[in-house]
């Protein structure tokens, strides 16, 4: 009999329009540290949500076997009862509550309905000792740094008698010291017979700590590598993560590159609430008329932060550096200013930042350039409809009428509405953040075609994307970012996924 | 873009292609989309019908005039409130502001012996100052409107007591009383028990409505948009004309055209236009609908929020004048709970609790539903206790309906 603590067999999970997981299988041996790696969108998080019961039994196909028995989880509580605890990238701690209160949240140490605080704090102190955190259990969590908060999360997991601990990008927000400490802790827990699943982008961490690694790509298992029996290089992992063919997924396009339109120099951005954290570090980026420039980077690399801070300081107020438009310095301290200088930014999160879902298509399209359909502060409703109809036709937005609510459209068509909105501002520079996230293959092709048409019309375009094939298929030049720094610029001719991934995972020490 | 060239042709084809099946589909779409709105009109008609049957006096000339005079200030507040709510805020202070502005007006006119219009101007000026104050805290300091206006509710009540020295002031001179209780040029064109002037004004309004409707229909045609068939259009104008004329006739048989009705009509028209047609109004909807998206689309959120509260202060000042005129004086406790009536009017009228949805006309109809119910129940001699309970249920039902609708539409997902 094998000694697998967990087997997930042929898991298939479909979201409307997207197959997130396809026949994914994974086996985790008892007491090992098992890494899962893959590009953004490869299905890692979805797989873990299936495992932890966030996606309950019945919403996916396949079987989960935990400790030798087939399990069916209806909710997170079910999986936690069995000893499976997931720690999300976004920590789920309440900043105003103390460490002890957070650890026992939902599991209060009470006798006859009254919380026993002495017991609570004493138990918390024991757990903190186990994770090596020297803090008073009554300290509010908000006063701790991210690294220590991570340890509190693990202490919380231990309080639930965890057998299988899942960590989703635990070191993404940590500095090197804290990361090392965390990985060390995972080894210690291994000694206490706790199995860990580690989801991470940082391949050197995997090489350092993992006993075996499963590689996911496009919602499928590519392979599971035993790291103890063979020497596995980072390159080998990269190959597994990216290798797929790029034929016919992108419309052919030759860019006609003109003069320089936008130049960003020495751009530094601080985190809006943690001022000491630098999220973009002295970035230099240029883009020319008719050129499509890509920005590659893993989560937390600072791509969105760079774009949003240039676009009217929409990401915090703490940024420095210079922006030049056609050679003259411009100031983009507010969004209207940025729009006035011909910059457009289509966000990565359409629903939260891009669209007013309870408003109709027409009014979403005109939202950023109402001045063009109004005079003296009064909107010409007919003109507005005409404009909306024009974009509906030229971008082929599939909607019953332009009066339909934006929230009722499919992802691809919502994205076309967002693009319409920004094209209507008549920008010189379009920054498209994850323009094809969450939309199906056919619609992606249409979006690429629109991007190409915009470039042909002389617009300078920056595409931020987590999908390397997308960047390779559409861009003339690709910048790579890692930990807030631009680590390279690769022209199309020289770009390969392996080369990009290498630059994207380049950390400071190696630089 | 290449597609644009073909647009005209394509759109023309679309207009021509509208067959009977798509008409029905469009009607259904229109109906589901406007269910929230049309539901409220249907409810209004049903409620009016109910009271008309139960109480013969309900639609009498005198009573219709009464309803208008009695609820005018709530309707004025509701107009400002719905714009506040559309942008995702709330204003709890308007009742106190009505009291304060009325008190200031009373001090100027009654104590100071100044002419009536100086009192009115002073009240509106104070309303604007209130707007500046609250707008500053909401828009520029970023404190939630709930807190700012809750503080305002206490603050302005306190100032009212201060201004009045804890005593009521009355009476106002006759000119001032006319604002809320007067009638415009009654008997100007004579008439035998029926004020011809009222009918003439109503006729002018109808002609204005017809001309305006026709012109907007022509404009839509020029833009190649689908319009209702001409006979249907004529029918719609005639129906509106009939209702307005019947209403005007009832007024004419009573005391004529209330000044405050003219004021209300003007405010409703202006603010409907502001909400539906102005860039400012649109920005309010954008902020309430998705603040982040509005910000990233270049909406000057702080400026818009400030103006919204400035405007609310202005309208609260106007309401203060109307209320003090109607009550013929200023009392320390004036305007108590008005804010809740105004807020209820907005929600009954289809405004969304989370912002981004609502109309001025809806809020006014919502206010009228409350007014008509109060009045009708009084006529039927229903106890005060039952009146409160029924009004509460109407509010709850209206919002529950709204929530149900939203969930069914699933659009906010």
What would you say this structure looks like, in words?
The complex is a heterodimer of chains A (511) and B (413). Chain A is α/β, with parallel strands linked by helices. Chain A folds into three domains: 4-242, Rossmann fold (3-Layer(aba) Sandwich); 248-342 and 427-511, Rossmann fold; 359-425, no CATH class. In chain A, 32% of the residues lie in helices and 27% in strands. In chain A, the strands form six sheets. Chain A has a six-stranded mixed sheet, sandwiched between helices. A six-stranded mixed sheet of chain A has the order 18-21-22-15-23-24, with helices on both faces. In chain A, a hairpin with a 2-residue loop joins β11 and β12. The model of chain A has no long low-confidence stretch (mean pLDDT 87). In chain B, α4 packs antiparallel against α16, α12 (279-289) packs across α14 and α15 (338-348) packs across α16. Chain B has a single domain (35-182, 258-409), classed as ABC transporter involved in vitamin B12 uptake, BtuC, CATH 1.10.3470. The two termini of chain B are 32 Å apart. Chain B is built from 17 helices and no strands. At the A-B interface, α10, α11, β20 and α13 of A face α1, α2, α3, α9 and α11 of B.
Give the overall form of chain B. globular
- Based on the structure given, which CATH architecture of the largest domain in chain A is correct? 3-Layer(aba) Sandwich
Q: Largest protein interface?
A: A-B, 47 and 46 residues
Order of helices and strands of chain B: HHHHHHHHHHHHHHHHH
Number of strands of chain A: 24
Shape annotation of chain A: globular
In total, the number of domains of chain A comes to 3
Helix proportion range of chain A: 25-40%
* Major beta sheet summary of chain A: 6 strands, mixed
Radius of gyration of chain B equals 23 Å
